[in-house]
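Quick one, T. Sequence first:
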Amino acid sequence: MADPKEVKRLQELAFEMRKKLINLCGSYDGIVHIGGDLSMTDLLIGLYHHGMKVDPTDIKAPTRDRFLLSKGHGAVCMYIAMCLRGYFDYDEIVRTYGKLDSAYGMHPCKIQLPGVEASTGSLGQGLAIAVGLAFSARQKKESHRVFCMMGDGETCEGEVWEAANTAGSYKLGNLIGIVDRNKQLMTSLDGDYMHLEPYADKWRAFNWDVVELDGHDIGQIVDALDNLPPVTNEKPTVLIASTIKGKGVSFMERNVGWHAGALSNEDTQKALADIEADFVKVRSVAQ
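Structure tokens:
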């Protein structure tokens, strides 16, 4: 059972992260993939601030857990989660995001930004990279985990399932997949054209342990991370997190038009007010 004090701490961090996401989107002269950023906020807070073994003062520690953001268009969400952990300076992210030669690109680049494990953005490739890292760690008898965050839309890609089959076949228990299951693709809803259900059964068919959870319930996220099988487990694990694209902002939630966008000053203030109200609601339920 998740410690209530830890849940409260992480809820406050997730609230702070959503505010920072909105402020960046409102100040940036261009579009931000804000819908998917808001859907995975709670998951990234749970990972970087509770579940993963990482140290921002020693980013190359051999014993660190590895994290790959396969849905690379959500990079700004990862940057801010890492900034809140002490990796980066938020003001620098806002000042340079998306600019020529910036370390903080619209997709993460490990050459430009130390602390990023892989350059991603071509959807479907992240899990294959993670499988390689997990297989290497297993061969070297290393004890860290490899985490890979995917969007459910990108799991339409065949490479994802080839990688899933490989991970299950090689019994990579040190590999943890996380799916941001917001049931929205870039321009349509899951099921409009591509049909992913029965989703969890697909992973089980490739010999994965499956945990289904509410991706906005910090308590469930903490419990899932605290109860991961040991790295010696003979199955990889996937956390299928049910989420809402645009979570916390009334005019973005489940709105296909907000896969990516820009915020006016009025939009920014409305979004911040919505996030404040959503946080109050979350805290009242927790109490």
